[in-house]
Write a structure and sequence with these properties.
The chain contains five helices and no strands. By secondary structure, it is mainly α. It has a single domain, classed as Glutathione S-transferase Yfyf (Class Pi), Chain A, domain 2, CATH 1.20.1050. The longest helix has 28 residues. The model has no long low-confidence stretch (mean pLDDT 86).
Length: 127
C-alpha cells in the first residue's frame, strides 16, 4: 500500500488494502514523525509563524488521527484478533504522544508568545 495514497485528502482510504501490519508501521512512523515535529518546533530559534508552528502541527496531527481512526474503524467493521492486537499494542504509544503534546510547556509558551504578538497587533480581536 502506498503511504502517500493513504494520507491523500482527495479520496477516502481504500481500507481493503490496509493490513494490520501496514497500520502498525504507519502508527509507529507517524508518532515518530510527530515527536520530531514537536521537537523541531520547540528548538526553533526563528520567528514563529503559521508555516513554522501551526501548519506542521496540523499536518502531523491529521496524519496521526487518520491512521489511528482507520485502525479503530477497521476494528468496528471488520474486527479481528490482528486488528485488536495492533490497537492494543499501539494504544499506549498514541496516548503517550497526545499526553506529551498537550502538556508540552515549551509549546504552550510558544503559543502564548504568538498570541501576545497577535493581540498587540489586533487589539479588537481580544474581546
Amino acid at each position: 500500500m502506498s503511504r502517500d495514497a493513504f494520507f491523500c485528502k482527495e479520496w477516502l482510504p481504500n481500507y481493503k488494502l490496509l493490513s494490520p501490519n501496514d497500520i502498525d508501521e504507519l502508527i509507529a512512523e507517524t508518532i515518530s514523525d510527530g515527536r520530531l515535529t514537536v521537537k523541531k518546533i520547540c528548538e526553533n530559534n526563528q520567528p514563529l509563524n503559521w508555516e513554522t508552528t501551526v501548519q506542521p502541527i496540523s499536518q502531523i496531527s491529521e496524519k496521526i488521527h487518520r491512521i489511528w481512526g482507520a485502525a479503530n474503524h477497521l476494528s468496528s467493521v471488520a474486527d479481528s484478533s490482528e486488528i485488536r492486537g495492533v490497537i492494543n499494542k499501539n494504544l499506549e504509544q498514541v496516548t503517550s504522544f497526545w499526553t506529551d503534546f498537550s502538556q508540552n510547556k515549551t509549546l504552550y509558551k510558544i503559543f502564548c508568545k504568538s498570541s501576545e504578538r497577535y493581540f498587540k497587533k489586533n487589539p479588537s480581536s481580544a474581546t
